[in-house]
Amino acid sequence: MPNSKGYRAGTRHKYRRGFRQHGMPGLSTYLRTFKLGEYVDIIANSAIQKGLPYKVFHGTTGRVWAVTPRAVGVEVLKTVKHRRFRKKLYVRIEHVRKSKCRDDFLKRVRKNQLLVQKAKKEKKKPQVPKRWPKQPREGEFVKFKKEQVKMLRPVKFELDF
């Protein structure tokens, strides 16, 4: 039998629901509000077949460009070989959730704004901190008594016949 090339082919594990997460989504899914320009993650909910995005877009992040009563228009980047194309698609709200990709950035912006306001009040030049990659830990000295140190050596291999 030849392998099928259907719309949901090869999604057995991709669209799988979590343990004890099967069935219809809760009401909070339908009460979320989406605004234009907001970042959202497309995560297909296999319990709802209407408005299901194509399998290529499962797990992608995009921006909301349209809001309708039951769906949102999401603009995503689709990678084809070495190129990236902008794709606009409508996805029902059951298959979309707000993205946390900008949370760290927005938190940092708020923190920097507070530092700038504080510097203006003190009439100083604002010093906005730079982001640094995690640095190696500081070195430490280990204190011990000579009696506590034991030299460990491998046991000599002997054949016992």
Automatic annotation (TrEMBL):
GO terms for cellular component: ribonucleoprotein complex; ribosome. The keyword Ribosomal protein applies. GO terms for molecular function: structural constituent of ribosome. Pfam families: Ribosomal_L21e. Keywords: Ribonucleoprotein, Ribosomal protein. PROSITE patterns: RIBOSOMAL_L21E. The keyword Translocase does not apply. It comes from the Eukaryota. One of its GO terms (biological process) is translation. Belongs to the eukaryotic ribosomal protein eL21 family. This is Ribosomal protein L21. Gene3D superfamilies: 6.10.250.3260, Ribosomal protein L21.
